[in-house]
Amino acid sequence: MTPAARLQAAIEILDEAIASARDDGPPADVIVTRYFKTRRYAGSGDRRAVRELVFRAIRRSAERPASGRAAMLGLAADDPGLVELFGQGRGPAPIIDGEERSPAAIVPSWLEPEISPLVGRGEWPALLERAPLDLRVNAARATRDMLIGQFPSAEPTRISPWGLRLPADSRIDDLPAYADGLIEVQDEGSQLIALACQAQGGMRILDLCAGGGGKALALAAAAPGAEILATDTNRSRLSKLAPRATKAGARIETRLLDHPRELEALADWAGTADVVLVDAPCSGSGTWRRNPEGRWRLTSGRLERLVRLQSQLLDIGAEMVRPGGSLVYAVCSILSAEGERQAADFLGRRSSWVAQATPIDAGRLDGAGRLLVPGQDGTDGFFVARLVRPC
Q1: Looking at residue 299, what is its pLDDT?
Q2: Assign residue 303 a region: left if phi > 0, alpha if psi is -120 to 50, beta otherwise?
């Protein structure tokens, strides 16, 4: 492919990504892969170059662009070399004076007031920097010191005792440690959420919003012998946990829940859990460096629905906690409504509960919890609070 043809391909992919973000369809990386499956003539260099153009344009545009062409014209405003490709053979049509160009921004304008005041504007660029590849060592079967030699470019993560950090785009699929279940891909922030649970063998632990089970696996590795139940309302996501647990040598029970009848399905756990983890669905604003198009998918209406759901999940989780037990609330978000205010509202509804310090030596105190952000802590952005039921 010529440089101009690569640019045209990027515009076509962006058109699909914009429509997909609007209609809650597949993410951009899936669209890129699908695009090239039907274009076998494109070599690895072409695919790499087009993907880079697509994600440069996505990172640059905080608001969902009007079109792929508008997104690329915006990028071309910062890169004169791209301007020359418009109008070339197999490339996009020539530029017309006055054409719409997507403006450059980090945070959608409507969302700026929602960003936690603890995250200064000077830290916003880090929200979109490319993320490293973090690994979690399966602590039940290995140690970080045992495995670090298998990854020449790896460094220990700064905060998590289980983590190894590799450069972005590192591949581990063919490594024996991955095939044998000794490591899992998991951002250090997610590892710290599991660490905040302070899991121990013999505990009864409920992961209420387990998804694919990454944190349940971390809990099982940290506390062999604990009774762990992982639940979710999404069958597809939850079904991924069993094979991962088998590979890791972890014993984790799974249970599919039916909203809004979660309390009925969990009646046998009511008031008996030592720890309940509510890693709630959220805006994902803390993961924009991995999923920058998430900004295009979020709307004020969607945010309001997420905040309501988080509140409901906290109340469900609270019913499962035994007297003296803990509820750990976490969101991959830097928005006050999902973090500090959500925890404060819970404590307002349940005045006898108290906040307890989390065992995380990083981040900033944010009301009842802690807030970590990429710029300061090197993790995805997230809020975590440990809430204790009175005896």
Answers
A1: 96
A2: alpha
**Can you list the alpha helix ranges (DSSP code H) found in the chain?**
3-23, 28-37, 44-60, 68-78, 80-83, 144-147, 176-179, 188-196, 214-222, 235-238, 241-248, 262-265, 294-297, 300-320, 340-349, 374-377
Q: Which of 89, 92, 95, 122 is CA-nearest to residue 107?
A: 122
329 HSE (CA, 13 A, CB side):
35
One-letter identity of residue 243:
P
Contact yes or no for 264/313 (Cβ under 8 A): no
Bridge partners (DSSP) listed for residue 111: none
At position 193, the amino acid (one-letter code) is I
Average pLDDT, integer, range 337-349: 98
Interatomic CA distance for residues 62 and 198, integer angstroms:
37
Question: Would you say 129 and 289 are in contact if contact means Cβ atoms under 8 Å apart?
Answer: yes
d(CA 29, CA 9) in angstroms, rounded, equals 14
Amino acid at 41: Y
- Burial grade of 153 (CB within 10 A; 0-12, 13-18, 19 or more): exposed
Q: What is the pTM of this model?
A: 0.95
CB within 8 Å of 252: residues ≥ 6 apart = 213, 216, 217, 220, 228, 229, 230, 241, 245
What is the tens place of the pLDDT at every residue in 254-289? 999 999 999 999 999 999 999 999 999 999 999 999
Rounded to an integer, what distance in angstroms lies between the CA atom of residue 182 and that of residue 149? 14
Q: Is 332 a catalytic residue?
A: yes
How do residues 32-53 score in pLDDT, each as one tens digit?
999 998 888 889 899 999 999 9
User: Facing residues of 354 across strands?
Assistant: 388
Return the DSSP state at 332: S
- State the burial class of residue 96 (Cβ atoms within 10 Å of its Cβ: 0-12, 13-18, 19+): exposed
Q: Which of 197, 209, 282, 332 is catalytic?
A: 332
